[in-house]
Amino acid sequence: MKCFIGTFPTPLGNAVAVIDDAGFLRELGLYSEGEAEARVQVRVKGGMLRDDAAVASIAEQLTEYFEGKRRDFSLPIAPEGSPFQRRVWEQLQKIPYGTTTSYGVIAERLGQPGAARAVGLANGANPIAVVVPCHRVIGGNGSLTGYAGGLDRKAALLRIEGATGPQQGLFGATIPR
Predict the structure, then answer these.
(1) Residue 163's pLDDT band (boundaries 50, 70, 90)?
(2) Angle between the 83-92 and 116-124 helix axes, to the nearest 10 degrees?
(3) Burial 47-67 (b: 16+ CB within 10 A, else e)
(4) Residue 77 resides in a domain
């Protein structure tokens, strides 16, 4: 399997996307300009092909998201992770746009109510930011908690979505301005 890596700008930094030769999105992250280019160079040296055009559909959908024109993504994804991580990531995709939930609620949905910490670790290992909306998971007390892209980005993503709560067991975030 060949993988292609490409970059494109977003309001929250440069996006770095990895797709495979079947067109599945495998990774998506937001980084500063220097960090994005460094990640690309490491992957190119490891055998990936640089092809910004290959990620054009991802760039288009993410741009629409940032413009408030898209709530759901229609991209085939194939994140790599353990079976537990993939189960958590499937739950993340069920969190409605503009709402938040907690690690504990996701653990309960998985039938493992004591696994909130494990859910947090799986959430932090999510390789496909925004599309698999790990930013919608907050602390059980409604506070913003860790985010691989930084709390400022997490807060910005929740503001873009106009995050609301609490409703139907979901918690509302306190989003700093």
Answers:
(1) confident
(2) 80
(3) ebeeeeebbeebbebbbebbe
(4) no
Token pair in block for residue 31 = 């980084």
Domain count, the chain: 2
Task: List the domain range (segments joined by +) for residue 103.
Answer: 83-161
Report how far apart the first and last C-alpha atoms of the chain are (Å, whole number): 43
CA 23 to chain centre: 18
Whether residue 169 is contained in a domain is answered as: no
Handedness of CA 11, 167, 116, 90 (dihedral sign): negative
Closest CA to 16 of 54, 67, 47, 68: 54
On the question of pLDDT at 173 being above 80, the answer is: no
The reply to whether 3 belongs to the active site is: no
Residue of 134, 137, 144, 157 with catalytic role: 134
Q: For 19-77, how does the pLDDT look when each residue is reduced to its tens digit (9 = 90+)?
A: 999 999 999 999 988 899 899 999 999 999 999 999 999 999 999 999 999 999 999 99
